[in-house]
Amino acid sequence: MSMPTVFVSHGSPMLILEEHRPARAFLASLASVLPKRPKAIVAVSAHWETDVPAVSTTRKPSTIHDFYGFPPALYALSYGPPGAPELAEQVARLTGAAHDPHRGLDHGAWVPAKLSWPEADIPMFQLSVQPEQSPAYHIELGRKLAALRDEDILVMGSGSATHNLRALVRSGGDDSEPEPWARAFDDWLAKTLEEGDEAALADYRKRAPYAVESHPTDEHFLPLHVAFGAAGKGTRGRALHRSFALGNLSMAAYAFD
User: What CA–CA distance (Å, rounded) separates 245 from 179?
Assistant: First the structure.
């Protein structure tokens, strides 16, 4: 059985400290959901944006605390898996990506990985996204990685199924019902992925309800397109987890087989 590709919503970096959140519990169980242990992880995070594709080639990736205004306990956390420079070079050949010998792991990569594989013993590196390019471009970028599945290498997209920071509801907790517009987009996404509708996913800004409200900008959605493409043509998605935080932040996660 080939390794599936996955997309996870990483949410706030505080997720790793907030044990009551359903999305945190899901990420802590992700390793058990996969059919096998990955030999390595290619993390495609919304928080590494470049003009052209780039891969991190360092042997010892640093933990990047790319956020501010959070409690000291969050900045004290680190995650130190080995890098995978040889695999990164392979991905560079497949995608035409540039090399970055210094890039570490941003919170879109290390927060879900630390929850899923706390031993930090699986080699890991990042592949960047290009927000000036289209979702269709990112599906094709992912497709260049499809052969990695047969090598038991996990392509993990990390972003957010919905992402509108200005619209977040910061009172009322996570027990309240999600706002209707966010639910409508989230339901459309689940149906589109289950049907494997690549054309709709690539053209989501025109086809999805409340696309602008759910994603004022593309960068947190593009890792999903890469993960979808990396599963190969004809793939369908299956929901691994669906929940909301802060009124409209979807924490949905999907696997693509």
Answer: 10
The domains located in the chain, with CATH, are 5-256 (3.40.830.10)
How do residues 111-132 score in pLDDT, each as one tens digit?
999 999 999 999 999 999 999 9
Among the listed residues 90, 218, 204, the one whose alpha carbon sits nearest the alpha carbon of residue 159: 218
Match 């960068």 to its residue by tokens.
219
Euclidean distance between CA atoms 236 and 217, whole angstroms: 25
pLDDT, position 177: 87
pLDDT digit string (tens) for 170-188? 775 556 789 999 999 999 9
Span 75-123, pLDDT tens digits: 999 999 999 999 999 999 999 999 999 999 999 999 999 999 999 999 9
DSSP, res 122: S
* Contact between residue 256 and residue 227 where contact means Cβ atoms under 8 Å apart: yes
Residue 35 to residue 255: CA distance in whole angstroms: 11
66 DSSP 8-state letter: -
Contact call for residues 229 and 138 (beta carbons, < 8 A)? yes
